[in-house]
Amino acid sequence: MPNDHYATLGVDRRASADEIKKAYRRLAREHHPDANRHDPESAERFKKIGVAYQALSDPEKRRRYDLYGDGGEPDLGDFSGLSDLFSSFFGGATGASPRGGAGQRGADIVADIEITLEDAAAGVERDVEITTQVECSECAGSGAAPGTFPSACLDCNGSGEIHEVRRTFFGNVMTASTCYRCGGTGRQVLDPCRVCSGAGRVQTTETLTVGVPAGIENGSQMRITGRGGAGLRGGPTGNFYVTVRVAEHPVFKRGGEDLGCEVSVPMTVAALGGSVDVPTLDGSERVDVAPGTQSGVVVKLKNKGMPRLDGRGRGEIVAWLRVETPRNLTEEQKDLLARFATARNEEVGDQSLFGRIKEAFH
Ligand SMILES: [Zn+2]
Ligand SMILES: [Zn+2]
After folding, report:
1. Fewer C-beta neighbours within 10 Å, C or N terminus of the chain?
2. Ligand 2: distance of its center to the CA of 161 in Å?
3. The model's pTM
4. Which structural domain, as residue segments, surrounds residue 3?
5. Ligand 2 centroid vs 100 CA: distance in angstroms?
6. 109 to each of 79, 99, 133, 145, how far by Cα in Å?
7. How far apart are the CA of 135 and the centre of ligand 1, in A?
């Protein structure tokens, strides 16, 4: 028989309920994942022992198991009990039980960092100070004073759960609830560690260096696996999540991998042609301006934008040219522009609408 519950518990087929219970307690303690932290197979054995005990500790189930073997138990009326049983012993789809002997996952830690656009373009390393929980070194995370060991909770036999069989319309239904005495931890610390007061973890401040990749977007969240709080009773460590804020830039507006900016062009350069400096992330680049350029003309600098996260090149800088109307003119400059206007038959000064309004007031 592939799954002989009697063999699993090491008892005879005629064993009494008490013998089965004793065998289960001894084996559960021996194969408890807490006591076998370096043996990944202990959790599997622990589960198997639990399943065997579930099948044999209930007289009705045991009778059915004796008659029909593994396949005869549980019957259809027990389907809800089966899912309870499986979720409590196999922890649902993930395989890690959130409570009971399999340990509790450590807390996730979240932090925000703000970097400049230049840092986002080049990639940067940042030190982040976090407050986290680490395994207590005094008791190696057990919570028990050095030289002592936590014992299995007597109420739940170390499983962290109390199983009850209820008779319902559909037949016997097994329900599992968190053990009240141990709060679902499955164990009792009789002599708690003095450093962590039995918690198994202590709070500490750590500095983590976060490598921000070049091209990261504002608001991106990075996950640093296994750098969160320590787990309990051998449970996995939580993760560290960093949200990266990219500060507003005085010159550039970002659109994905492209950078937009505005470049003012003197009126004379726009009219006669010439060149202007277009800013880049590491300086500027001189670009030609064609004669007769209007406001709103776009100049693009290929490969000067933000790097792509996949490392395949960079976006572009998109510069909008804005023709600048000169201000604070000297008398000589005014005279020159007035003559220019006359040459183009353009009405300026007192002949303008503004001049006519002024006249109406005098
Ligand atoms: Zn401790
Ligand atoms: Zn308990």
Report:
1. C
2. 6
3. 0.56
4. 1-103
5. 8
6. 39, 21, 10, 28
7. 8
